[in-house]
Design brief:
Elements: H1 3-6, H2 13-27, E1 31-35, H3 51-69, E2 74-78, H4 88-93, E3 98-99, H5 105-116, H6 126-134, H7 141-161, E4 164-169, E5 178-182, E6 191-192, H8 210-219, H9 226-239, E7 241-242
Parallel strand pairs: 1-2, 3-7
Antiparallel strand pairs: 4-5, 4-6
Amino acid sequence: VSSSDLLSKWLGESEKGVRGLFEIAREKQPCIVFIDEIDALCGQRSDTESESSRRVKTEFLVQMQGVGSDNSGVLVLAATNIPWTLDTAIRRRFEKRIYISLPEVNERAAMFKTHLGASTYHTIKENEWMQLGQKSEHYSGADIAVVCREALLRPIRRLSSATHFKRVSNPNPDGPRQLWLVCSPGDQDAVELTLDKIKPEELAEPPVTMNDMIAALSTQKPTVGEVDLLKQVKFTEEFGQEGS
C-alpha cells in the first residue's frame, strides 16, 4: 500500500485505515504488508504537526507492537528514500533497517535492456548495453526507465521532422514489398519527402539507436545527488545494515 492510501482528510479516518489494514493482514496471515513512502506517514514528531498526524503515528505504533508481540504471521516491510526523517519510535519497531544501494554497472546494463523491451526495434549491440551501464553512474531504476522512454520517443521525432526517405525491402511478406525509411539527405538513395505524403502501411519503423540512448542520457540526469547518498551511508552506519 502507499502511505497516501491510508491518509484521509476526514477526522479519524486515517487511524481507522491503519487499524483496518492490520486487521485484514491478521485475518489473511501469513501475510506481508508493504508500505511505500512510509516517511509520509511516520515522519519525526514536532511541535508544529497536527493532532491528526500524531494520532496516525500512535495508531501505527500500537498496531506494529501488536504484530511483534503476538507472534503472528504478519511481516511488515516499508520503503523510504529518506530514512533519517522517520520518527525514532517508528524506526525502533522495524527490527532490520536494510540499505538497498543504487544499481551497479552490470545491473544498470540489464535494466536498459529490459526497459527497452525485447519487442522494440533497435540497433544496439550486445557490448553497447555495458557502455550504457558505465555511462549511467548514480542512476536509479526509475531514472533508467525515464531514459529509455525518452530514447523511444526520439525515432518518432525524427519521423515528424524528416525531409528525406529511402526505399527498403519489407521483411513482412504480408505487407507492401517496399517501405519508406527515414534517412539523411546525404544518403545516395534519399528521396525528398515528408511524413504526411507517405501511407502508414508503407512506413518503415525507425530503430532506436545507440545515439538515441546517449542523447536521452544527456537530457535525463540522475535524481539522486551526492548529498543524499552520503546521508544514506551515514544512516546505514548508525542504524542499519547493507543489503545484498
